[in-house]
Amino acid sequence: MKIGFIGLGNMGAPMAENLARNGLDVLGFDTDNSIKLPEITMMPSIPKLLTEVDIIFTMLPSGLVVKEIVNEFINNFNPKSTLIDCSTIDVKTTKEVCQTLGNKKINMLDAPVSGGVQGAKSGSLTFMVGGSRDDFDKLRFLFEYMGSRSVYCGKNGSGQTAKICNNMILGVTMIATCEAFALADKLELDREAMFDVVSTSSGYSWSMNSYCPAPGVGPKAPSDNNYTPGFSSDLMLKDLTLSQNASSESKASTPMGDLAMKLYKDFVENKNGSGLDFSAIIKTFEV
Ligand code: NAD
């Protein structure tokens, strides 16, 4: 089985390398032609890559880029090939791309990930997968080469839906955790005591227990490393914008998601949050 991998950035490069380390023949393409990976055969163009492979992974910045590539090169895909898009993109674009490919009998799985760059490097990502159950069953071994878990979520778009719902909860709980530290500080509660109580009480969450935004408290996290990401505030803003757009389109009610998006937008655009880990938003509450 020959694999193509388009988009070899922070996430795509280690993911493609993990496929190659498991004995697969991997061909790669990225518009940044300074990218060189010893285990990947870099191709000069997308059409040249597409004609040679059976499975194509994409790990790209946005839905627009995924859509442009599919629309431009639709006639270069091998019949019976499958596109597995691991980028985080909007549900609407995922469905449109799936339709374009389906018209040519090319299958697609949407398979966004959680676990970040560290998870991509260590092969411990979680994949949330939408598409046909048969395709998932046939191809899940590929997810196992790059991750520790893959969850079948349902029809196309379901993987992206699961991803943005998860990250909406993450954004909201991170802000709630930061606010609680701000209140505890004002009331002169020791941060260590605050962690010890909340992490073992009903206020616990991944944001508090595993990724505590207060430095020096709880297990090692980006807060202990000057908020070097981890998962950047910019990417959290991207994901909260995707969840709010999906919320408006589907007429869901997500007021906390909306507020979290606005707070991250202000942090990234006006409060020097860009480039910092998303837990650094605690700084905006330390007044
Ligand atoms: P990145 O910017 O490091 O990588 C994207 C790569 O795509 C770049 O190398 C870029 O040159 C390439 N690219 C852009 N346009 C292209 C085109 N037309 N053809 C070929 N290559 C092209 O981004 P990343 O951090 O690797 O993120 C990729 C995706 O993964 C995003 O959708 C992001 O939301 C998602 N994601 C990222 C993280 C994370 O922690 N970085 C975590 C989970 C999900």
Structure description:
There is one protein chain. 46% of the residues are buried. The protein has helices at 12-21, 46-50, 63-73, 91-102, 116-122, 133-146, 158-186, 191-198, 206-209, 233-249, 255-270; strands spanning 2-6, 25-29, 41-42, 55-58, 82-85, 107-110, 113-114, 125-130, 147-154. It has 2 domains: 2-156, NAD(P)-binding Rossmann-like Domain (Rossmann fold, 3-Layer(aba) Sandwich), CATH 3.40.50.720; 161-284, N-(1-d-carboxylethyl)-l-norvaline Dehydrogenase, domain 2. The strands form 2 sheets. A 6-stranded parallel beta sheet has the order 3-2-1-4-5-6, sandwiched between helices. It has a 3-stranded mixed beta sheet with strand order 7-8-9. It is elongated, with a radius of gyration of 20 Å. Helix 3 (63-73) packs parallel to helix 4 (91-102) and helix 7 (158-186) packs across helix 10. It is built from 11 helices and 9 strands. It is 46% helix and 14% strand. The model has no long low-confidence stretch (mean pLDDT 97). The protein has 287 residues and is an alpha/beta fold.
Q: What attributes does this structure have?
A:
three-stranded mixed beta sheet, binds nicotinamide-adenine-dinucleotide, 9 strands, Rossmann fold, alpha/beta, 11 helices, about 290 residues, six-stranded parallel beta sheet, N-(1-d-carboxylethyl)-l-norvaline Dehydrogenase, domain 2
